[in-house]
Amino acid sequence: MLAFVAATGPLSMQIFVPALPAIARDFAVEPAIAQLTLSASMVAVGISTLCYGPLSDRFGRRPILLLGLWVFLLGSFACAVAGRIDALIVARIVQAAGGAAGMVLARAMARDLHDASGAAVAISRLTMVMVVAPTIAPFIGGVCHDLAGWRAIFWLVTALGVVALALCHREVRESAPASPSSPRHLLRGFGELLGDSHFVVLMLYPAFSSMIFFSFISGAPYVMVELLGRPVTEYGLYFMLVAGGYIVGSYASSRLIGRISGLDLMTIGMAIAVVGILTLVAIQSLGVLSPLGLCLPLMVSQIGQGLGLPNAQAAAINVFPARAGTASALTGFVQMMSAAVASQLVGMLQNGSAWPLIILLTIAAIAALTVSVAARTMARG
Hints:
By secondary structure, the protein is mainly alpha-helical. Helices cover 85% and strands 0% of the residues.
């Protein structure tokens, strides 16, 4: 149930991406304006996570999760009926703010229910499910768009929101009782976490890692549809190939935890990601970029991401187990704000080639690898 709830936010964020060119045409706006429906929603996710974590530490996980799902449902309905681009952007912000509840609280509830090693395995599986949903989402969105237009995508998400809310009311139990902590005490938790250098370094790994993934999902439709001339539905299939790499890596991570340390898996995983992205750099430099030439190297990079990212998230939350909600919130905030910056940059820097996307991918991967090495050095020093 937690996996289903956690998947609603990522699914809703990715399912409409293949329709971005059609949305820009329908509302007669530039691609960078239509891109705000994605990047602004990422900012909303980042900011709202800062609220959900501490509030769930104070009032309990279940009521805050239900509140978030109500907001998600209302935002999804508003997206479906939006008559102007500014209304759609606002509705996407509301939808994303609500969907963030499941993303944040599922990880915190997993930590409530397990010890440190068990939490790493549970979060790895949750993360894998949170990637499976957006893996198939662009294909589903592309089919909806081709059959009934882009609004059908948001009607489908609204229906999923109704199901998630009904199931959560019935199935999800409280995992952390309400705390009598004062608001000042809850806010002090942010300072405590940010004052710990180990937590800060671990928090940066998911941030740079997310920049890789969201740069791809923001820039790949332009490269595939506009530059390579492929149909929207075909892009959705190639996206499944790339994100399938993450599923493979995440599954391997869940099997290797306990045999290889989480910090080592972070470094090994990001080294694999760097190799995949540098292969893409070589393909683009040779001028032989194709759909497979774009997606196969990125699939390799996502195998590495799947190995490392769940371990980084679990390690960050485990620094202060008593503040699991706040730690999950801070990690999610930095993660989504970095993703929003990457997403908007890809839209703004489009210049008729794939280089803006590839350069951002390379910078983010090298930065994440540097952070993983720093985390290992700090842990062993």
